[in-house]
Queue: 3 jobs
Job 1
Amino acid sequence: MAVRTSLLRRSPRGKVAANRPVPNIDGVPVEGDLLLGLSSNECDSIFPKLIFLPLRTHDVLREPGEPIKFGYFMNRGLTSVLSVMKDGKSVEVGLIGKEGFVGCPLLVGLSTSPTRAVIQIEGSGFRIAAADLEHALRDCPVLERRLQRFVQSMAMQGTQVAACNRLHEVDERLARWLLMSQDRIGSAIVPLTQELLGHMLGTRRSSVTVAAGILQKAGLITYTRGSVKIEDRPALMNAACECYESMLEQTRNWESESSQSISV
């Protein structure tokens, strides 16, 4: 597996720093936050075990209760984590973009999950076998710490989304979901359908139609078949429920705590 670098590096917060190399694996630039900025020793330990994969919409990365054979470092696109009922109905409990990793149970020695992980917006990722991940993390303390913090972030997200789905109006939840998606894919255009949004928000398609109409009439979004374009992000943030800002605030607090622990 060839690992090379280019002349720019995208930082974990999405900014590009000049004169710092961006790693690439077999000619594919690494864009996932977890893999950027690692030491050369950690890169040498983890990168040769990674396999680049295009990820298509509706690809299922894991099913509830089935053995987790692989983990996925997201590079582009959007993965939805779903809680699935016995009758087949599902609701989204988490979103993962290039900031994250699919396969968190592997990090604590577990091999199954109660949730389904499915690609909602096509992109790409780097796949790693479960056994290879376990071995590589022994030599990658920084990556391991990042993954542990990502697990905490996902737990916080799931808790907040559960409260959101119970307490807030559909239009507020839709605004929150669109903002979260934009943060993870880095685009104002979010490819999706109202039927898909209904599954994600745990509500009927007709309710999503009404909610999208409210946001579109206010000039915050434009909806065409198969995609939503965010026209006014600041106004959309005002239209979202408190959950979006709550999650951002907690993330900022943890980043500050992390910086302080590193400087000590």
Note: The radius of gyration is 19 Å.
Job 2
Amino acid sequence: MSNPSGNEFESALTYSSYLAVDELLELQRPLSDGPEHDEMLFIIIHQTYELWFKQLIHEFTAAQQSLEDGDTHRSLAILGRIRTILKVCE
């Protein structure tokens, strides 16, 4: 990828920028006065579950496509990934 300014590091992709860490960490907005200590934990746990649910939908869609394509090996690998995610969410 070329950079017209000549500075290769100016637009370097970083862990933080790729994952939008700053934006992600701004999504926890406790509403209670104080805020209550456990409220942050509640928000983070439930936001994390929502992200896992989004990933499960992505994986099930890919598994369905692999099955429709007759790619059994890929389907089994994806189903294994789904199983692992579900174990994390127990």
Note: The chain has four helices and no strands.
Job 3
Amino acid sequence: MKNILHCSGHNVLFEDIIRGDNCILYDSKGNDYLDMESGVWCNSIGHNNHLLVKALAKQASEIMHTGYCYLDPIVERAAEKIVGITGLENGKALFLSSGSEAVDFSIRISKYITGRKLMLTMSDSFLSSYGDFDNKDNWIFHDWLNNESLAKIPFSDISAFIFEPGSSSGFVRFPPSELITEIVAKIHANGGLVICNEVTTGIGRTGCWFGYNHYNIVPDIIAIGKGLGNGYPVSCIVCSGKTAKRINNETFHYFQSHQNDPLGACVANEVICIIEREKLIFAGNEKGKHIISELNRIKNKYGIIKEIRGRGLMIAIDFISRRGSSIAQLVNEKLIEQRIILVRRPNSETFRIDPSLTINDNDINRFITVFENAVNEVEKNG
């Protein structure tokens, strides 16, 4: 494909995928591939979900885009739905186009409200594909992995703490609850805001609606993306009512052409409705427990897996490191031969597994069987 610019950091392995059905992809020759990463962790309810396609087609046939001075009622219905699942009292929602945009917009809000520029986050956070994250003067990256003390953090100068509750730049690490509770308390005591980056961890991925539900905290702003659109480019920020009241429409403006578009709002609303109606968060959490149990069985049986981590259907596999060749690469090559697609983190010994919440037992069994065979073969061949 000579006219496509590739800059994702991952190699394009298959150029002929023409159809998807839940967790299965098909090429033009009819070969099937098992997608264990749900696109880019986006397909929360499966490829080509017929209920979502029906709702999207209906909305597209009526109106897809509106202007700054007129709205489709679907936007209010979707906002009510998404505020409801966050639990933020008197919350307000704004629909945008990508998770990175939602994170960046949340930061803009915090700087506007507090009048401060300094931001706090964890050292292994992935925050956005754009923004001012390269400007180190505006950021404190707390090294929680090495038990860095909080004593040197100037909490009175911090605009917001941006918390990514589990993704950790794709490595699936979960900061301890006690640490997060302490940071949040200090941020709020000093007039700062708490932003939860739920782009990856939200919409049922970790066995709850949001990753912060595993922590005893209440954020001021939540950035949501990926699974909210099931592959359609829609994201959202939700502010608590208290936070929203501090945003003055006369002085805070955001001129983005596709905010609160009805088509994106329709998709987000339908995704949440399907997850609720089909009880997919509970089902996904149970499937995640089963996959993690099977992976730990394989880990204990063979000698090349270092650790399994996960919550819900967000799972990481760390392989041991050795000189000369990458075990993760060798196992991944075996999986690709059997048409299993998952994320090997670039330049690491880590796999990431994020299938759709709708993955069925046959597909889980297929993955576990192929994965164990691959691990066995790589270990046996040294």
Note: The chain has a mean pLDDT of 95.
